[in-house]
């Protein structure tokens, strides 16, 4: 992107990566006639990575706006990985789960101590998903997606769980580990006045809030909105990216703040709990507080509109 070019004169954009943020950016930018874009993806083909993804209400709203939701079918949501290949989020057969007494058909988080949880949910009539989170010491062999691990080692990490969960885990035949890691927190998501970071590249949230896809779509939507604003008000690209940054960077900071608040309350809970059970109850209460769910209701259009208003008010004041 050239920094000082007026946005309405047509700009060229390179989108790096065809994950949720890159694809959303492509759809959003395709709607802007003054943008010529090219998407670069390192993988030669679209392929399944074998992990589930939860669509939060905010994700769904943006998929609707993108016109993508109408292309999603039930089997897209509830699709097991090929064969019976089990990952960190293994899929097991519903007919086997039905034999276990004490496993609810509702989606359940089975909390333990030390940030450990197991999430169980039926996907459709034939499959169940199990997601297991456990905090492990950092090793030198971290990989981003899907490293096969020993089933015995995996099961060792969840031995304190009650009998129905043990039976459920015994159905898993292979498991892969998906590591969460991220870079440092950035003050700004714009570099050199011409590069905008979107999606996971812009924030190290490491899976917090289970809404990385929503954040990615919000980034792309805001970026397109900022470019449209610049084009219609005859600004240059740097103005558009400054606006984008002024909307998204504070949003990320607010997410970090919420993440830190929850982490601090978990630490306090662990310190003060008289028993494992008390700690688990405390942790559930910490994450369930309504003030920690604000991001699912975030109105990304309103946030951009507010930032544009604030910018224009500042501009008027500087003229007066
Ligand atoms: C195990 C796991 C479970 C998750 N569960 C959920 C969930 O339930 N709900 C939710 O909303 N989010 C979830 N997330 C987070 C969500 O998957 C991410 O936030 C989201 O995928 C981010 O999209 P992205 O496009 O920014 O990045 P990515 O999805 O990582 O896509 C980046 C793309 O860029 C490509 N790429 C990388 N480098 C280059 C390069 N140099 N050149 C060209 N292409 C390149 C990659 O191949 C990839 O296709 C989960 C994440 C993990 C790891």
From TrEMBL:
The keyword Mitochondrion does not apply. Its cofactor is FAD. It holds the Pfam family FAD_binding_3. Residues 11-76 form the FAD-binding domain. Keywords: FAD, Flavoprotein, Monooxygenase, Oxidoreductase. Belongs to the paxM FAD-dependent monooxygenase family. This is FAD-binding domain-containing protein. It comes from Neonectria magnoliae.
